[in-house]
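A reminder from the course coordinator: this example appears on the midterm review sheet, so study it carefully.

Given structure:
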C-alpha cells in the first residue's frame, strides 16, 4: 500500500532544485495563507451580514455553509492572480523569479532521456506525426543520440492496434538508425496510465536518467525539451519538472473559446501559484520531465482498498505522484513559460464534460490518501484543494437552489437580505472568479507585444468579453454535471477509462439532449420560477438559470464545424500560435493556421517533409 511505503520525509532545503531560501519561502506561504484565510473569513462575514437583514435561521446557516465550501478555489485563484499581476509588472522575467533554476546549455547534454508516448485507442497517425516533428528537431540539434522513443500502448481495439503497428514501423524506417524507437503494448492495463509508465520504469528505467512523459496529443518543441533536460542535469534534487501546457490552434469553436480563456487565466495564475508553492509544485501527468530513479522508487501507486469508484486504481495519479516525489526529498516545479509545450483540448462540450468527470472521480479518491504519512504540508494542502475543486460544485448548486427558495419566501416583515450588501458580495465574488483572466488581460493590454500576440488590443478585448460571457454560461452546466455524477458515485457508479475523442467536431441536437437533458430540465424549471417571482434578488440567479437552460444550444453551436471554421478564418479567439506560428506549429499543417485570413503557408521543407499524415 502507498501509505505503508512512507520514505523518510525530507523537508530541508538544497540549492540544486529544492528551495534554497527556506525562510523566504516560509514567509511567502505564511503571507499567502493569511491573505486567503482572511479573505474567506471576510466573505463569510459579509454573507452572514447580507442574510441577517430578515433574521438568521437554519436555512441561512445552510446557505452560508454551502457558500463557504465554494470559496477556497475562488479565493486562491484571486490571490494567485494578484501576485502574478504584480510579478508581471515588476519583473522583465517573472518566470525566473518563481522558478530560479539554471540549466546546462543544449550542447552539454550528458544524460539519457526516454520520451514516453502513452496511448490508448488513439489516432496512431496523429501520434506518430507529432513524434516525427519532435524527432526531427532533436536530430537537427545534434542531440538525438541522447534520446530514445518509447510508444507505450494500452490499446484494446483491434483497428487501433493494427494502425499503431503500421505507423510505428514507418516511423522506425524513417529514423533508423538515427533514433531508437520502441513499441510496447500491454494486453492488460493494470494501473491505467500510471501503471503503463511504471511498467516502463521496471523494464527499461535502469538505462535512463530522465523520462519525458507525453500524452497522445502532446507536442513539445525540441528547444524546450533540451532546456528542461539542461535544468534537470544542473539540479540533481529536482524530481519532476512540469512544463506549462497550452492548446494547439484548433478549428473547433469550443476548443478555441476554452483555450483562449486558459491563455488569459494561466499566466497570472501559474506565476502566482509558483511564487508560494516553490519546490512543492503540481504535476499534470504529461509534457513533464521525470527523474527516473526516484520516480521508480518512490512514486509507484498501488490500488486503493475497496471497490470503485473510490477504491481500486487511482485515476488522477499525477498529483499523488507529485506529493510522493516531494515526500522523498525531491523538488517538483513548474516551468511557467507559455511556449514550446502543447496539447489538444476537447473539441466539444460533451467531450469536455466526460474528461472532467474522470478527473472528478480521480480527485475524490484523494479522500483515501489524506492520512498518508510523511507528506509535505503543501502536498497535503494540494490534495485537499483537489478534492474541494469538485465538492464546490454540489455546494454551489445547493446554494443556488436554497437561495431561490429563500428569495421566494417574501415575508411580510421585509426583505430576506440586504440589497446593498448583496450586490457588494456579488461584485466581490465575480471579481475574484474572473481575477486570473482580468489580471492577465490587464498586463497584456499594457504591453505592445502582449496586445500584438493576440492580434491587437480590440480583438483581445472582444475575445475576452466573449469568453467571460461563455464561461459564465458554462459554469452552471459543469456544476450540474459534477453534482449529478457525484450523486451517482454514492451508488457505486464509476467512470470507464476510455480514450478522448479528439476529432469529433460535430454534435447533433439529439446527442446533446441525451447528455445534457438534466441541465435543460433544471433550466426550464428555474426559468418558470424566475417568471413567477418578482423578487429583486432573482437577478443574482439569472446567469445560473440561463446557463443551464442554454446547455444544448451552446453544445451544438460550439461543435458545429462551419462555426468553428468561420471563427478561425476571421481570427476570433485567436491565440499567439495563430498570430505568429512557431516553425514547429507551421510544420503540422493545422487547418486553424491555414484558414485564417492573410496567412501565407510555409513552404520550407520542414512543413512538406511528412511521413504520410495529410
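Designed residues:
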Amino acid at each position: 500500500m502507498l501509505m505503508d511505503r512512507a520514505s523518510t520525509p525530507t523537508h530541508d532545503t538544497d540549492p540544486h532544485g529544492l528551495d534554497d531560501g527556506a525562510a523566504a519561502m516560509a514567509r511567502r506561504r505564511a503571507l499567502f495563507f493569511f491573505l486567503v484565510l482572511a479573505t474567506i473569513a471576510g466573505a463569510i462575514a459579509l454573507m452572514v451580514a447580507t442574510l441577517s437583514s430578515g433574521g438568521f435561521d437554519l436555512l441561512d446557516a445552510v446557505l452560508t455553509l454551502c457558500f463557504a465550501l465554494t470559496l477556497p478555489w475562488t479565493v486562491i485563484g484571486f490571490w494567485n492572480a494578484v501576485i502574478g499581476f504584480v510579478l508581471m509588472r515588476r519583473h522583465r522575467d517573472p518566470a525566473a523569479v518563481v522558478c530560479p533554476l539554471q540549466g546546462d546549455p543544449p550542447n552539454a547534454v550528458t544524460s539519457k532521456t526516454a520520451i514516453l508516448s502513452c496511448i490508448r485507442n488513439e489516432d496512431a497517425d496523429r501520434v506518430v506525426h507529432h513524434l516525427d516533428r519532435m524527432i526531427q528537431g532533436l536530430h537537427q540539434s545534434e542531440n538525438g543520440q541522447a534520446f530514445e522513443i518509447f510508444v507505450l500502448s494500452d490499446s484494446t481495439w483491434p483497428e487501433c492496434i493494427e494502425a499503431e503497428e503500421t505507423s510505428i514501423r514507418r516511423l522506425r524506417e524513417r529514423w533508423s538508425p538515427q533514433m531508437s524507437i520502441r513499441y510496447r503494448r500491454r494486453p492488460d492495463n493494470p494501473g491505467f496510465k500510471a501503471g503503463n509508465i511504471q511498467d516502463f520504469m521496471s523494464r527499461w528505467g535502469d538505462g535512463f536518467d530522465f523520462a519525458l512523459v507525453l500524452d497522445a496529443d502532446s507536442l513539445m518543441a525540441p528547444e524546450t525539451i533540451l532546456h528542461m533536460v539542461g535544468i534537470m542535469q544542473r539540479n540533481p534534487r529536482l524530481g519532476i519538472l512540469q512544463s506549462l501546457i497550452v492548446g494547439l490552434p484548433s478549428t473547433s469553436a469550443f476548443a478555441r473559446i476554452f483555450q483562449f480563456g486558459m491563455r488569459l487565466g494561466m499566466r497570472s495564475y501559474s506565476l502566482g501559484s509558483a511564487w508560494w508553492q516553490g519546490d512543492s509544485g503540481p504535476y499534470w501527468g504529461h509534457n513533464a520531465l521525470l527523474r527516473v530513479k526516484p520516480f521508480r522508487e518512490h512514486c509507484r501507486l498501488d490500488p486503493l482498498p475497496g471497490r470503485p469508484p473510490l477504491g481500486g486504481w487511482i485515476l488522477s495519479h499525477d498529483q499523488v505522484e507529485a506529493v510522493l516525489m516531494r515526500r522523498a526529498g525531491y523538488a517538483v516545479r513548474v516551468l511557467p513559460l507559455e511556449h514550446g509545450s502543447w496539447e489538444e483540448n476537447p473539441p466539444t462540450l460533451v467531450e469536455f464534460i466526460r474528461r472532467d468527470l474522470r478527473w472528478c472521480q480521480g480527485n475524490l479518491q484523494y479522500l483515501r490518501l489524506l492520512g498518508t504519512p510523511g507528506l509535505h504540508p503543501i502536498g497535503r494542502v494540494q490534495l485537499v484543494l483537489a478534492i474541494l475543486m469538485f465538492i464546490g460544485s454540489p455546494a454551489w448548486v445547493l446554494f443556488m437552489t436554497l437561495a431561490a427558495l429563500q428569495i421566494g419566501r417574501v415575508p411580510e416583515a421585509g426583505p430576506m437580505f440586504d440589497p446593498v450588501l448583496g450586490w457588494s458580495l456579488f461584485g466581490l465574488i465575480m471579481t475574484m472568479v474572473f481575477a486570473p483572466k482580468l489580471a492577465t488581460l490587464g498586463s497584456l493590454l499594457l504591453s505592445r507585444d502582449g496586445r500584438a500576440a493576440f492580434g491587437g488590443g480590440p480583438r483581445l478585448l472582444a475575445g475576452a468579453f466573449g469568453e467571460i460571457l461563455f464561461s459564465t454560461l458554462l459554469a452552471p452546466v459543469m456544476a450540474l454535471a459534477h453534482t449529478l455524477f457525484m450523486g451517482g458515485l454514492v451508488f457505486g457508479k464509476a467512470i470507464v477509462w476510455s480514450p478522448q475523442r479528439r476529432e469529433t467536431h460535430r454534435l447533433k441536437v439529439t446527442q446533446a439532449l441525451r447528455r445534457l437533458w438534466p441541465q435543460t430540465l433544471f433550466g426550464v424549471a428555474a426559468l418558470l420560477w424566475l417568471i413567477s417571482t418578482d423578487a429583486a434578488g432573482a437577478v443574482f440567479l439569472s446567469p445560473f438559470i440561463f446557463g443551464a437552460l442554454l446547455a444544448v444550444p451552446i453544445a451544438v453551436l460550439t461543435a458545429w464545424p462551419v462555426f468553428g471554421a468561420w471563427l478561425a478564418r476571421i481570427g476570433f479567439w485567436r491565440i499567439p500560435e495563430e498570430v505568429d506560428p512557431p516553425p514547429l506549429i507551421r510544420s503540422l499543417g493545422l487547418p486553424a493556421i491555414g484558414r485564417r485570413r492573410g496567412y501565407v503557408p510555409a513552404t520550407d521543407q520542414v512543413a512538406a517533409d511528412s511521413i504520410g499524415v495529410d
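The first helix runs from residue 22 to 51. The radius of gyration is 25 Å.
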